[in-house]
Amino acid sequence: MGALKSHALPEVAGKPRPAGADAGSGAQAGARSARARRGRPLRKRWPLAAWIALAPMLLTVVFAYLGTMVWTARVSLSNSRTFPSNDFIGFTQYVRLFHNDRWLVSLQHIVLYGACFIIACIVIGMLLAIFIDQRVSAEGVLRTIFLYPYAMSFVATGLVWQWILNPSLGAQAVLRKLGFAHAHFDWIVDQDWVVYTLVIATVWQASGLVMALMLAGLRGVDDELWKAARLDGIPRWRVYASIVVPMLGPSLSTAFVLLFVMVVKLYDAVVAMTQGGPGTASEVPAKFIMDYLFGRANIGLASAASVVMLLTVLAILAPFFYARSRAAARKDV
């Protein structure tokens, strides 16, 4: 019986393994090791030198960012005026804020501006990226021209467009000198249209960034897809609309986040172009905050407005990032 076992074991051990078993076991081992690395504590994955290198940034995030957020929230619950005070008044500043007509008007303007700005930037940026993706001549020059406005500051952009839109000096004056005596392009002094002048100026500046993001995504599309579409006789626009654009989800989401942050931070262009006028026709939350913080010496109300904007950003972006992290986790499984 022992001899039988001794002869049988080598036969089992030497039995040929099915093709692909080594590759499959290697892939499974790699997946197990990756899961083990993810489950390992950070202190075991990262050496001490990495933590020392990250220490300045961590301290900056904790004290300069999180610390100032907490301090701003605390001031918003006080009766602070020119200087911070410890007079706790609860949510009185928030009640005052939402009874302030200027604040409510600024919220209306930022919603209108944000919708127009984000949609226009994504559409124009996508069209520019598709145009350059056709392997046009002088592609490098065109990329530089379209992306160059983004390198300018919003103050410079605002001043340039203020001159262009000035009824006495800009496009309207040029059109009238060319013989169009009744030409009107005075949006910058029209209360009903001044917000759209901000859209024009900032879209001109930011659409090049969207173009660069979309072009990077388009260059990642497999050439075999285009060959198959040509063989099937599918029009090029249909391929973009039905296949390519849905594949650019990560690029579109990145563009949306960057543009949304620009909307919330809108201040420089407003100050350079309109100063919030005519009247309060182009007032935005960031200008409201800066005016009450420095001009009207009402730190408590300005801090309450800042906290409201922060909570708005978190309410919009937190679910977005959560959905992306869940999608990435499903891909790793």
From TrEMBL:
GO biological process: transmembrane transport
Compositionally biased region (Low complexity): 19-33
Compartment(s) where it occurs, according to its Swiss-Prot or TrEMBL record: Cell membrane
InterPro entries: ABC_transporter_permease, MetI-like, MetI-like_sf
Membrane topology: Multi-pass membrane protein
Record region (Disordered): 1-38
Record's keyword terms, sorted: Cell membrane, Membrane, Transmembrane, Transmembrane helix, Transport
Assigned GO CC terms: plasma membrane
One protein family per Pfam: BPD_transp_1
Domain ABC transmembrane type-1, chain residue ranges per copy: 107-320
TM stretches of this protein: 48-71, 110-132, 144-164, 193-218, 239-264, 299-322
Domain of life per record: Bacteria
SUPFAM superfamilies cross-referenced by the UniProt entry: MetI-like (SSF161098)
Family of this protein: Belongs to the binding-protein-dependent transport system permease family.
Record PANTHER family: ABC TRANSPORTER PERMEASE PROTEIN
Descriptive protein name: Melibiose/raffinose/stachyose import permease protein MelD
Species this protein is from: Paraburkholderia solisilvae
Lineage: Bacteria, Pseudomonadati, Pseudomonadota, Betaproteobacteria, Burkholderiales
